[in-house]
Design goal:
Order of helices and strands: HEEHH
Largest sheet: 2 strands, antiparallel
Number of helices: 3
Distance between the termini: 57 Å
Shape: elongated
Structural class: alpha+beta
Radius of gyration: 17 Å
Helix content: 25-40%
Length: 96
Amino acid sequence: AQRVTDLPPRDGDTCSRCRRPIRFDLPDGHDLGPKIEEVVSRSAGGSETLDNHCLTHLRCNAKSGCDTEEVKERARIKHEAALFARSRKRRRGKAA
């Protein structure tokens, strides 16, 4: 079985799905904490070697069923729109 500490030297400390930093100092089960994911599941012929595993956030691992390119693009656009809306609200609040 792979351990969370085996993967950062190879992969760094970013999530393989969203490419954002993983927090290793959080308690087990936290959404932004690390989760080991199989690249190819064992039921599909994947191995238990380190090469067949990667690190993701727990929340990114849980969403793996919805990982088509179209879903990823929609999520990216929605996230960018939310960030833009928040920055506009902040600017208006400071100008008043």
